[in-house]
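Technical annex B. To support the medicinal chemistry partners, we prepared a structural model of the target in complex with adenosine-5'-diphosphate, based solely on the information shown next.
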Amino acid sequence: MALVEIKNLHKSFGTNHVLRGIDFTVEQGEVVCVIGPSGSGKSTLLRCVNLLEQPQEGQVIVRGEDITHPDCHLDAARQQIGMVFQQFNLFPHLSALANCTVAQRTVLKRSAEEADRIARANLERVGLGEKILAYPAQLSGGQQQRVAIARALSMDPALMLFDEPTSALDPELVGDVLTVMRKLALDGMTMLVVTHEMAFAREVADRVVFMDGGVIVEQGPPADVIGDPKEERTRTFLRRVL
Ligand code: ADP
Ligand code: MG
């Protein structure tokens, strides 16, 4: 069974038909990178997978459960999915450590000791073991993004969603975040990553999905989709970004 199965997903905002029938799956342990021009619906797709948006039509099935079904327990479904945004969305008044413990305690009802232990381990994992007591304003953008990754990991998600996690970073800080993501991929984390980092997608993705105009134009191994695209729309996009 696929970890995530997306079937005929449609999402409109008013008359703007943004997702026009999206079908694809993410297998356990797979890294799927989604690429495509601005406005093609990549963020909307991720937000539908995480139920931050309700699609008008279609299904998102996580571990066999249709999480778009009205009877589905939204909080339970969301708990399985970690999300990292372009803007890190840390709590500015909380330390790195507290940013990583608060949802563990309130949502997962973990004890303070357990939440603390798990948060420390995940901050170590992203290379911030020395910064656990720093506040977001005392951290670089790349460090803040790594706290956001540690925070998501602390909830033990089955799937991690990344929406252009390095797009807001100064160029010299991008590498550290990509290194952490590469390590997660090697550890077997299932990841769905919207990115403009073609070198990362080429190296780390098991599959690349090219979206344009709310549909999947082409998908396959990176060597095909990025290295030898079949569709003219994919070639045009790659000529602009490579
Ligand atoms: P991408 O991430 O590929 O750049 P988005 O999914 O952000 O694309 O946006 C796709 C389209 O959906 C755009 O036309 C955008 O204006 C529209 N859109 C996205 N979110 C909303 C929203 N909350 N309300 C209205 N329109 C939206
Ligand atoms: Mg986007």
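Notes passed to the chemistry partners:
The longest helix spans residues 171-186.
The pocket of adenosine-5'-diphosphate (ligand 1) is lined by residues 13, 16, 18, 36, 38-44 (CB under 6 Å).
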